[in-house]
Design brief:
heterodimer; A: mainly alpha; B: 330 residues; 4-stranded antiparallel beta sheet; 11 helices; 13 strands
């Protein structure tokens, strides 16, 4: 059985396990939907009071927010194994079992769980995205649809990279580092506003270190047919999501170093 | 060439030391102190296909480290390991698809899934051909008497049921070698017997090579033709169990029931080990005091109701062995 088919089997099993508690799955999903809606209500209240911030309106912000939030929700479907890697695999020694199976650890961790409850968050993100697009009167073309998919794919790669990086650190700390939530959840928060609102050092952080800006700000400008007020060249705007994949690739270098460490020191 | 070849294996761990309390944790962040623990030094042995080897030793002696190295999840610092001609940790995927491993303390099944679904998933993970899988599974289910637990989620199983399911899970892909790390720990008597029976049959009927670690000497007595005693990271003995017993304790036991209150026995080379009402347990060296002579002498002097000859409990043999080698709990 090839890896993709196996992943399908893993997820079918995971969903059956979650559906042993259907009420819990439905409530978690609804909860995620409602909590994130409240998120957006706060932004709406802000813009209802001030109208515009540096020329950005509620519709623009909703598109930024929808893109980054959808990326994060999709990542969250399949990265649970990496998210809780330290406490669930390194500390308990359960990673031994992963290494005892004739499949790549990455595949096994992606297969660890498929989080049904994230549908709530994804639904909310897409709702906000398309309402925002309607507010700014965005004209959908096939090119724009592809750009949107490519942007979200870059975002998924970036957030997956953060999860893999977090898991890699756990080889050294044996705990899941909650500190990383600053980067993941904080990244979603920071990414929902245009970079041009931020101070220079923070902007650079979001472009060069943890390239959230590259998977939200730049490509969304292209989606909105806006030039970059900070002066980035036009060709760069739709290219930027590639940085998410670069980040993911770099994270896997850390991951490999972590596995090498694990096999030479034990748990 | 032997199926498992281990030569001059060495493994050292660096263990971070931390002072207790919050202050200690903070200090540990700034300045880490390390202690070096020598888990294995100079371990060599080999195993032919079809052997059944027991691995015993006190906690911390290096048993689990050896199993982890042999199963490819730990890299040794020095030495040679070949299993089926492969180096386990460099050729991990090919290696692990040919071995089965059961860690007594950990589950390899899915907690919330019924046992049968866990088996299905494992068959996919190990790429077992469907027809072979079904035949294997049915055979193992019958052998391990798992019919009644197949539909139940793993979390609802008793420890004994779970361990039998674990062993079946480790064998679905027909491994040539089975590593069992404390397979009977915490089990009740019937489950222990069932586990031993299965291991014995797998070894005899299918020719599966078995390497097992245990603290339960009855496992060793029931199963292992050959025993390796490990202590302080070194092989202290590698021999058939009977040889080990004879070398360490050339001692026999005689339990005698008397018709009346048990008398004092004063004979050269005979010790009283325990006294309970009308029963005495005597220890003697059969080389110095031949068993028939001792029995004749007792029967002549006292009114004896029953006599049986025994050997010291296997735990005693091992404890004595550790004492001889100064290899108590590490």
């Amino acid at each position: 059985m090839n890896s993709l088919a196996l992943l399908g089997r893993y997820y079918a099993a995971s969903m059956r396990a979650q559906m042993q508690y259907p009420a819990s799955a439905i409530m978690l999903g609804t909860g995620a939907f409602l909590v994130t809606i409240i998120d957006m209500l706060a932004v709406w209240a802000l813009f209802d009071r001030f109208g515009q911030v540096q020329g950005w309106g509620l519709g623009d912000i909703a598109v930024f927010y929808g893109v980054i939030s959808a990326s994060f929700a999709i990542t969250d479907f399949f990265t649970r194994g990496f998210d809780i890697f330290g406490s669930a695999f390194v500390k308990t020694g359960a990673f031994d079992r992963v290494l005892l199976r004739p499949r790549s650890p990455t595949l096994q961790l992606i297969g660890y769980e498929f989080r049904l409850s994230r549908f709530g968050r994804l639904a909310q993100a897409l709702l906000v995205l398309f309402v925002g697009a309607a507010l700014v009167d965005l004209q959908w073309t096939p090119e724009k649809a592809v750009l949107l998919a490519w942007t979200i794919a870059g975002g998924v790669a970036l957030f997956a990279g953060l999860m893999v990086l977090q898991a890699s650190f756990a080889f050294w700390t044996t705990e899941s580092l909650e500190v990383f939530n600053v980067l993941t959840y904080g990244g979603v928060q920071a990414g929902q506003f245009p970079l041009s609102l931020y101070a220079g050092w923070f902007r650079n952080l979001l472009i060069f270190i943890v390239p959230i800006g590259c998977v939200a700000y730049y490509p969304v400008l292209a989606l909105l047919d806006q030039p970059d007020p900070l002066g980035a060249p036009a060709w760069w705007l739709p290219t930027a999501p590639a940085m998410g994949f670069l980040f993911l690739a770099a994270s896997f270098l850390a991951w490999r170093a972590g596995i090498a460490r694990y096999t030479s020191t034990g748990s | 060439m032997p199926q498992i070849l281990v030569e001059d294996l060495a493994k050292t761990y660096r263990v971070a030391e931390r002072d207790p309390g919050l202050l200690g944790a903070v200090r540990g962040l700034v300045h880490r102190r390390h202690r070096t623990v020598e888990a294995l030094r100079d371990v060599s042995f080999s195993l032919e296909a079809g052997e059944l080897l027991g691995f015993i030793g006190p906690n911390g002696a290096g048993k689990s480290t050896t199993i982890k190295i042999l199963s490819g999840i730990l890299k040794p610092d020095a030495g040679l390991v070949l299993v089926n001609g492969r180096v386990p940790f460099t050729d991990r995927i090919a290696h692990v698809s040919k071995i089965g491993v059961v860690f007594g303390q950990r589950t390899q099944l899915w907690w919330d899934l019924p046992v049968s679904e866990g088996f299905d998933l494992l068959a996919d993970i190990y790429r077992v051909e469907p027809a072979r899988y079904r035949a294997n599974r049915d055979e193992l289910v019958a052998l391990l008497r798992l019919e009644r637990v197949l539909d139940r989620p793993v979390r609802q199983l008793s420890l004994g049921q779970r361990m039998r399911a674990e062993i079946a899970a480790a064998l679905l892909h027909e491994p040539d070698i089975l590593f069992l790390d404390e397979p009977t720990i915490g089990l009740d008597a019937p489950s222990k017997l069932a586990v031993r029976e299965v291991v014995r049959r797998l070894n005899r009927e299918r020719g599966v090579t078995v390497l097992l670690t245990t603290h339960d000497m009855h496992d060793i007595e029931a199963l292992a033709q050959r025993v390796i005693v490990i202590g302080h990271g070194q092989v202290l003995a590698d021999s058939p169990f009977e040889t080990l017993r004879a070398n360490v304790l050339a001692e026999r036991r005689l339990v005698v029931d008397f018709a009346h209150e048990a008398p004092e026995i004063i004979m050269a080379g005979v010790e009283i080990r325990s006294r309970q009402g009308q029963t005495l347990e005597l220890a003697f060296d059969p080389a110095r005091t031949p068993t028939p002579n001792l029995i004749a002498a007792l029967a002549a002097a006292h009114e004896v109701v029953d006599i049986h000859v025994g050997e010291p409990a296997i735990e005693e043999v091992i404890a004595r062995f550790y004492d001889l080698h100064g290899a108590g709990e590490a």
